[in-house]
Amino acid sequence: MDDKDPSKPPRVRAELLLRQMTAEEKVGQLVQPFGWQAYEHKDGNVVLKETFKAQVARGGVGSLYGTLRADPWTGVTLETGLSPVQGAEAVNEIQRYAIENSRLGIPLLIGEECSHGHMAIGATVFPVPLSIGSAWNVGLYREMCRAVAKETRAQGGAVTYSPVLDIVRDPRWGRTEECFGEDPYLVGELAVAAVEGMQGERLDAQDSVAVTLKHFVGYGSSEGGRNAGPVHMGWRELLEVDLHPFRKAVEAGAASIMPAYNEIDGVPCTTNAKLLDEVLVRDWGFDGMIVTDCGAIDMLAAGHDTAEDGMEAAVRALEAGIDMEMSGEMFGRYLLQALSEGKLKEAALDRAVVRVLTLKFKLGLFERPYVDAQLAGEAIGSSEHVTLARQLAAEGVVLLKNEGGALPLDPASGGKVAVIGPNADLGYSQLGDYTSPQPADKVATVLAGIRAKLGAERVLYAPGCRIRGEDRDGFPVALETARQADTVVMVVGGSSARDFGDGTIDLRTGASKVTEDVWNDMDCGEGIDRMSLRLSGVQLELVQEVHKLGKRLVVVYINGRPIAEPWIDANADAILEAWYPGQEGGHAIADILFGDVNPSGRLTISIPKDVGQLPVYYNGKRSRGKRYLESDLRPSYPFGYGLSYTNYEYANLTVSPSEIAPGEEAAVSVDVTNTGVVAGAEVVQLYVSDVASACTRPALELKGFEKIGLAPGETRTVRFKVGREQLEYVGPDYKRVVEPGRFKVLVGRHSADTLAADLLVKEDGDR
């Protein structure tokens, strides 16, 4: 029974180790307490807590969550947190204690949040996923994932709770920023890139981490856009839309998956055996670990009310397919008792333990449980990663409007620029949710980015107002500042900045100040869902007052969900949608404002005219219904939309052959020309429309895209393949099928601007 032999397959080693374990040790492997509670940081030293030591002695710790996480929830701040080197040393100490003071010496699985960077002090903060999706650059995202994995593993983190693969159907949802967008194909391509980038060629490499796909499934389609609300979705739509990116990621080798909080058709995902066993394991062949979201098992007995008490909730979750519980409260409290009372089948317990141990063996934790702390200091926040963050931020910025060529600004004009608005110089509000605290000099705000371009003497600044609230005390200073400038850059939007108790901003001077009543501007992020998509507070009023001065007005949105402000759409000279662009966002935005970078971002989520239009996602059914009395169903800005400082012309769309059998492919080509005078990058988008089908279908669906760079006057022929994967759908018998008939193949700039050609799929045997 040599589980120590690395030549044996991981699962075989796991099964050998299982035979040596007591019931207490088995249950312990399924428990994941909060890692930041395992130690104290005092006077530069890490001291392990006695509660953690006692749990190790009982065999009761298999994993730790968020050991290096820093935010208001953990209470870890810049002052009390650990540097990159200290963090690695602390994880080594925790790991060493667990190995040396437990009977079988099983290493811990250290899990960390890495949605857009390792959520630890010092780590690189990349743009949020909504911005990453808007870049439409799969290769660049894969490169980012390699960087995040390198930073995380350097500190001992071996599994990450990302990527988020939820399809957004109602952007009032506060977690919209954590998602790539509204389209399953695009999300699926990014899902594969995340698996390849994070996990690398080998999971046991010292720069690889195991991904955890989340949230499985339907989480972005909750009732009313309310977090963890019920999902009303048919099985066909679930298979075609929300499950698609998860299937693609599982096929790519994803090592772990996290069920969502929500219910679907009355069944909570945490106990949905049809999803967790039938679809995920039996149909897709998933052989990884399934871990709950925090508190999800508690919700079964107090929220969903599908279990009478905590014990029933824990047993039902485990037997449905759950392997590990984040927080560990319910499994740790009830599973051993349930086993002894015959309420839990030992086979279900053993199945879960084997999956957990198998992942640990795959990660190489038994052979290399410790990291080189000095390497953590070199890898985390490296200059290469900072450069990558700036490029991703720039490629994710979407130019929504550019009336009369208002942009780019001319840095040589000698004019002054007024940077006004609550998000102009609030670094933490630029980073999005799931972000650790940052020193002020690490985050380049829009104000800092513009000053770096022009010099401080030509750049004026006033915050004007806060993101939320009715305080207009800053209006007079902001208006006077705007009067002195030739161009006004209004930086407005939202904030997912959680309250560190650091104070607020003086609306008259723009300086930070500490008050007894700390103001919280957060209007987005997990658990922060809204009834409206309008700007919070008095921001719109501030923009309107500045507009009266007659200056060139450029609006920059920094936010985590679409903003529906028709007045700004109509009256601003130019509009940039930057989402939460990360630590280098200010430099990236300035690069675009002054033409050093030609904007190439394209929307991955439709922006409605008004919240009353919702839902407005582009791939809705043809049978979606008629228009409203007040307006049509078209959004202000459609999926795939984005302007450039140059123009692109599409021509010569061909589909060859124009007739194929269900199992054959057609080649699609189109010529794209840069007809302007500056170089740029265009996102060429391929859509398919099934003209008639046995079940209702969307009017069109994204099935391919390519981002290409073009010099002025250059023409490039872009090619795609259209075959079974692009043409199939879930038919009347709930199986994937390519139905014979006519299809439209559409290629163009965005979902509402395409060329079209016909493709006929013949019956098998037709000639």
From TrEMBL:
<dbReference type="InterPro" id="IPR026891">
    <property type="entry name" value="Fn3-like"/>
</dbReference>
<dbReference type="InterPro" id="IPR036962">
    <property type="entry name" value="Glyco_hydro_3_N_sf"/>
</dbReference>
<dbReference type="GO" id="GO:0008422">
    <property type="term" value="F:beta-glucosidase activity"/>
</dbReference>
<dbReference type="Pfam" id="PF14310">
    <property type="entry name" value="Fn3-like"/>
</dbReference>
<dbReference type="Pfam" id="PF00933">
    <property type="entry name" value="Glyco_hydro_3"/>
</dbReference>
<dbReference type="InterPro" id="IPR051915">
    <property type="entry name" value="Cellulose_Degrad_GH3"/>
</dbReference>
<comment type="similarity">
    <text>Belongs to the glycosyl hydrolase 3 family.</text>
</comment>
<keyword id="KW-0378">Hydrolase</keyword>
<dbReference type="InterPro" id="IPR002772">
    <property type="entry name" value="Glyco_hydro_3_C"/>
</dbReference>
<dbReference type="InterPro" id="IPR017853">
    <property type="entry name" value="GH"/>
</dbReference>
<feature type="domain" description="Fibronectin type III-like">
    <location>
        <begin position="682"/>
        <end position="751"/>
    </location>
</feature>
<protein>
    <submittedName>
        <fullName>Glycoside hydrolase family 3 C-terminal domain-containing protein</fullName>
    </submittedName>
</protein>
<dbReference type="InterPro" id="IPR036881">
    <property type="entry name" value="Glyco_hydro_3_C_sf"/>
</dbReference>
<dbReference type="InterPro" id="IPR001764">
    <property type="entry name" value="Glyco_hydro_3_N"/>
</dbReference>
<dbReference type="GO" id="GO:0009251">
    <property type="term" value="P:glucan catabolic process"/>
</dbReference>
<dbReference type="Pfam" id="PF01915">
    <property type="entry name" value="Glyco_hydro_3_C"/>
</dbReference>
<dbReference type="InterPro" id="IPR013783">
    <property type="entry name" value="Ig-like_fold"/>
</dbReference>
